[in-house]
């Protein structure tokens, strides 16, 4: 007996339960419901799947390695420094080809500085670069007079730069080698155009439209694409961001994954206040004379700082986001049905009769003789209680 | 005939099908269901939407550019080096103002090193910095004796630093310029406070609470906010992480997007073992004497390494995450109904009669005379088979 | 009257509405439905939850700080430079221990360069490093003859490197200190193995399998693990990426969060074209003679550039992704029922009678006497209209 009970339970597991519906020939609600269905399906296919690629798993944690190399040579002739020839070993700081690099376009050398006492005209509101020795020609320390300082003398000449000294820096070229890796898809690529023509990489120059995949950039082109004039920037210095963007749809094949280059100036504030503009820093070269005494050359260098940033996103078909998006779309269609029900129940004139049919009243009977509810009886109960 | 058939099919497309429900006046289950509904709606509105901002699309792939500039000057007086004046061009390594920078707070100079043979007391377990010339005063190479080495002589003095030599490094200031960009929203901003008062940026100092958006930081303040004493750190060196956090709710307007600064010490292991503490490295200055022979100054510099890291997340209303979250909430409410059904079916005393009503039995008839199932007949069939 | 109406409305809020189902004893559809249910549940538990950890919130915005320190010493003897002893202060560029560092393995010194005129054999297609003075021995400027140039003389000797000069660079060791932070979970960790045995960190060497958490790496091991021979790479230089990967399941406890190291060569293009291979750059040391004239040593250094990249993802249980994934699973099961309905309606022989039962026709009555629809009457209407 117990065996047949469990057998019955087991068999009833394979009974198929399905929801019941009532069909109403109300054209207006029917059309409304189909419209809602269509717009949801359109939204899912058009926006989620085609435009936003909701069926793809994405990887934004791009790993990237940058190597840069500059070419070009310039000659300067100044009173302090005499004739100088500048190669990449001099004008690229640091010289080892990193992703953040500074190209000297203008400089002010203060040669043969020695430690000692010298006079300095005091400026207000600036961090003095000397140690005060205490003797001032002005009335008190807060006045704007001349003070004797202990430090590296002679002190740096105060001068506003008059145009860049490395005037042909505009024609220097920068070769950017970028290697990227998307760890989630174990996909790697380089921005160096793969070509059988070996001389292409020696001769090509990046040009939007014409040579979008050539990794060699003329400095003047970079500032122009960022919207600024090179000679203007070169005088006081500045900062340029080079964004390399890798948006790769790996479903379309790996050869369609190409970098895009964008150039932005980074030291100009939005309201164009000049306080943040310009870029310079000081560095030194130390020497010793025959007597073992130290002296140095102080270089205040102005120039353009290039900051190469890599950003990317790779997408590839994956079952999980597809299911999540399809499932939420299906639920939305259910929500559309809910909305149509509301219209039918509350806005249509005959909503009440519809409501009675949709929501059948159910009341537990006093005595459960056979456990089977008689449908006609239920309707009668409803009549009695309503 | 066929035409009217397809016309019928087409018209029936606009029939509106809706699920049927039975209504039971069981207060306990009714209240339970409303409670579940309310808590799910509360969770969706309160947690998913208000707290976690589930209606927003987010961009965590922040692009960032950092420029740093230090100010301050210090004077040291040691036996080896004599009097030295340290400006930013000397104590900032590298000098070009990067996001990772090292500020010298202590140093040990070994001047006038020349290549040659000199004696070195051998230490165990350390990578020797010399080439062994083979002649040792101890018994064998593994003993702890004095060996003759070939290298830069005189060798560096072994000494534990006694307090920082650049004692006022605490008062140096660092000006951090950070430019960020959220590519998904094409939103850019700088941490430099936009003000009409130009002198503000010359005079202000970062202070939590008082001046949270001033981008100029006193080094002593930075170590204090990281929880360490500057003079302690300055002696042996250390590493400080400066996190700039940009959490931007772009729905609230762009001017509400402000950076937050956090400071952490990075060279202290969690269990405070001293092996990982301190930070120093060696660098050299090379000279040549009149005879063309090379000699050098070896600097072992201790100091604080600042590592400026930028982290950010921007959020903006987007339809897709909103829909995904609303849809999963709606499904949850459906799950709540499922749970109430279980309670009604299995826990309530009158579950059986309820079950019969909810799940109507259906059995295919032997002969389908008119394709319409008589509802009363179905109940009779059920009675016969049960 | 109105009071009792609102009271009725309020009470009916706690009526419990539940969907009605019809049960069909069709074994085939029943089994099909259970199979679909089982496979969806299996997919959700097995793939979404166990394999992809869909119940976890993840943080991929890892913050990381790197400090590196090299050890080892090498001696070289060349015609130009004589005997030289190389310590980390010389062969690591930059010396301050950053995440991107260059280790010199080979070099070509051009000592005692002075500014002046010298002869240069012209090469085609290369950016000349000199300023032409205009006097060429060839017929015209485009010929491949010898020209007089103004620049740093003597010019660098043209020579292909014959094996690395710092031949034991293979045995140098690099100590990598990596500190990471997951901001979403405020979780921090260091890759330095926490041990009570202080001498472990002085003696250990990284070995896959044996010592996977020792942070000290032999350079020769790194190139070997990247799949290349050190001596080959050292001659012309190259670029190695060291990926530190932190995949942390924070539900399993913080002590289970360990870094994994991966090594890749980065300067070899996929099609093995040699144009992108090798890595070298030039740097200089400037000197002044007793007369104050500048001269310099030009170093062309070949070597290996290590680029330490940190990538990571931490996961921790969170209610939102759990709910999104469960909800989409539940909707999927609903979709399975839809599919079974289709089978029952369109593929089974008796689909029509099933359809009539599932979708009951409903038509508004002409007169609504009591607002209650008689079920039997509805069936009669159906009979009349069909």
From TrEMBL, chains A, B, C:
Q: Which reaction does it catalyse?
A: Ca(2+)(in) = Ca(2+)(out)
Which GO MF terms are attached to this record? ATP binding; extracellularly ATP-gated monoatomic cation channel activity; purinergic nucleotide receptor activity
Supply the PROSITE patterns for this chain: P2X_RECEPTOR
Q: List the disulfide bonds.
A: 118-153, 204-214, 248-257
Bilayer-crossing regions: 31-50, 326-348
Instruction: List the GO terms this entry assigns under cellular component, sorted alphabetically.
Output: plasma membrane; postsynapse
What the record says about family reads: Belongs to the P2X receptor family.
The record's function comment reads: Receptor for ATP that acts as a ligand-gated ion channel.
Task: Name the chain's protein.
Answer: P2X purinoceptor
Identify the species of origin: Cyclopterus lumpus
